[in-house]
C-alpha cells in the first residue's frame, strides 16, 4: 500500500453534514490522513473540533491564508498534498485558485464557483498548475449510476430519445415562509450562495447526472423559476426544458419546497431499445425497461456489472452501500490520479464538470429573467 495522501480540510467543522461525509469517505479506502485543517472561521472552535475528532492540533491553522503559508514552509514530503474545500459557495473560487497556484491538488464541493466567469479563470489556473481537481458530484460515485453510464456507453439503449431528471427536497419550507429566517440563511443570500439557490444547489446535480450517464451534452435550455415571495432573491423551485440534440430532449425538475420530500434525486433515460431508471433514495436498484422484454433489475456486486461499477462496490451482493461509499469512490479515484495510477475517466467529476455546471446555472437564471426563453450553453 502506498503511503497515505496528506489531506487538508477547509470548513466542515462542528455538526456539518458535508464535513462528516468527506472525512468518512476519505478514510474508507485507507488512502488519506488528515494532515492539517481550518475547520471553522473561529480558531478556538476549530481547535476544539480537532481535539473532538482526534486530529493533531499542531497543524490546525487560524485561517486559510495561514494554512497555505505555513504548509509551504514544510518539506514537500511532509506538507499537505490535496485540500478539500467544504466552505460556503463564495469561498470556493478564491480558495481553489490559491491552492492550485501554490501546487496543491483540490477536491471541491459544488458549485465549483459562484459565477461562470470564475469557473473559466479557475480552469486556466488548473491547466497551468497541472494538478488534479475533483468536483464532488457525489451521486456519480454510486455503483448503479456507474453501471448506468457503462451500459449506455455500450449501446444498451441505442439512440437516446428522452431524458428526465428530478431532484426534490422540502427542507427550505421551514425557512422560506418566515421573513426573518429567509433573510438570514446563507443559501438564500446571493452574496454567499451565488445567483441561484435551487438550481445552484441541487438542480446542478440533476444536470450533471444527465451528462455523466448519457455522455451527451445539454446544448440549450428554457427555465421557469418560482421564488414564492417578492423579497426572496433566490429560486427555490424550477423546471428546465433541455435540448441535447435535434431529437434528444428532456426535462430537469428541481425543488427545495417540495413538501415532505427528503433527497429525491432520480433519473430516467429513454432510448430506442429500452430505458434505464435510478433513484438516489433506493441506490442499489437500477431498472431496465423494454417494450418487448420483462423488467430487469440490476443490483451492485454481481459479476454481470461493469468493471467501473464493481470497482466502486466494497461489499458482496445484498449488503447495502450508501452516500458515504459513493463519496468514498470519488476520493478513491482522486487518490489514483494524484499518485499517477491508471483510472477510469468516470471515477470522479473533473474541473470540466464544474465549468459545465456553472454554465448551466447561469443559463437557467438568464432564461428565466429574460422571459422564459431558450438559451444556448457554451
TrEMBL record:
Enzyme Commission identifier(s): 1.1.1.-
Gene3D superfamilies per UniProt: Dihydrodipicolinate Reductase, domain 2, NAD(P)-binding Rossmann-like Domain
Signal peptide: none
Annotated GO MF terms: nucleotide binding; oxidoreductase activity
Key words, A-Z: Oxidoreductase
SUPFAM superfamilies referenced in this protein's UniProt entry, alphabetically: Glyceraldehyde-3-phosphate dehydrogenase-like, C-terminal domain, NAD(P)-binding Rossmann-fold domains
Pfam family, one: GFO_IDH_MocA_C3
InterPro entries in the record: Gfo/Idh/MocA-like_OxRdtase_N, Gfo/Idh/MocA_oxidoreduct, GFO_IDH_MocA-like_dom, NAD(P)-bd_dom_sf
GFO/IDH/MocA-like oxidoreductase domain segment(s): 145-276
Domain Gfo/Idh/MocA-like oxidoreductase N-terminal: 30-137
Entry protein name: Putative oxidoreductase YfiI
Organism: Flagellimonas maritima
Amino acid at each position: 500500500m502506498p503511503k497515505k495522501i496528506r489531506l487538508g480540510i477547509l470548513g466542515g467543522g462542528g455538526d456539518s453534514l458535508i464535513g462528516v461525509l468527506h472525512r468518512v469517505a476519505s478514510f474508507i479506502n485507507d488512502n488519506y490522513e488528515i494532515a492539517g485543517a481550518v475547520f471553522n472561521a473561529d480558531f478556538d472552535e476549530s481547535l476544539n473540533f480537532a481535539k473532538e475528532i482526534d486530529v493533531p492540533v499542531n497543524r490546525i491553522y487560524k485561517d486559510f491564508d495561514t494554512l497555505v503559508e505555513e504548509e509551504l514552509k514544510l518539506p514537500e514530503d511532509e506538507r499537505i498534498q490535496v485540500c478539500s474545500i467544504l466552505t460556503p459557495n463564495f469561498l470556493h473560487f478564491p480558495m481553489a485558485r490559491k491552492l492550485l497556484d501554490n501546487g496543491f491538488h483540490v477536491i471541491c464541493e459544488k458549485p465549483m464557483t459562484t459565477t461562470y466567469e470564475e469557473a473559466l479563470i479557475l480552469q486556466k489556473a488548473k491547466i497551468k498548475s497541472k494538478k488534479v481537481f475533483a468536483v464532488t458530484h457525489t451521486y456519480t460515485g454510486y455503483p448503479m449510476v456507474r453501471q448506468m453510464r457503462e451500459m449506455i456507453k455500450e449501446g444498451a439503449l441505442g439512440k437516446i430519445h428522452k431524458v428526465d431528471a428530478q431532484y426534490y427536497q422540502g427542507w427550505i419550507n421551514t425557512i422560506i415562509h418566515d421573513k426573518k429566517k429567509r433573510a438570514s440563511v446563507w443559501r438564500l443570500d446571493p452574496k454567499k450562495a451565488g445567483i441561484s439557490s435551487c438550481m445552484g444547489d441541487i438542480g446542478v446535480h440533476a444536470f450533471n447526472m444527465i451528462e455523466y450517464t448519457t455522455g451527451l451534452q445539454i446544448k440549450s435550455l428554457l427555465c421557469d423559476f418560482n421564488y414564492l415571495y417578492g423579497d426572496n432573491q433566490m429560486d427555490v423551485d424550477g423546471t428546465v426544458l433541455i435540448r441535447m440534440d435535434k431529437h434528444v430532449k428532456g426535462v430537469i425538475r428541481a425543488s427545495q419546497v417540495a413538501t415532505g420530500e427528503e433527497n429525491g434525486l432520480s433519473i430516467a433515460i429513454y432510448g430506442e431499445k429500452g430505458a434505464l431508471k435510478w433513484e438516489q433514495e433506493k441506490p442499489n436498484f437500477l431498472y431496465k425497461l423494454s417494450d418487448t422484454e420483462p423488467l430487469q433489475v440490476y443490483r451492485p456486486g454481481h459479476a454481470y456489472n461493469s468493471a467501473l461499477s464493481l470497482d466502486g462496490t466494497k461489499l458482496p451482493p445484498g449488503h447495502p452501500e450508501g452516500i458515504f461509499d459513493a463519496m468514498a469512490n470519488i476520493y478513491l479515484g482522486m487518490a489514483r490520479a494524484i499518485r499517477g495510477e491508471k483510472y477510469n475517466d468516470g471515477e470522479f467529476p473533473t474541473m470540466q464538470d464544474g465549468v459545465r455546471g456553472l454554465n448551466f446555472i447561469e443559463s437557467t437564471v438568464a432564461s428565466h429573467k429574460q422571459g422564459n426563453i431558450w438559451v444556448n450553453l457554451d
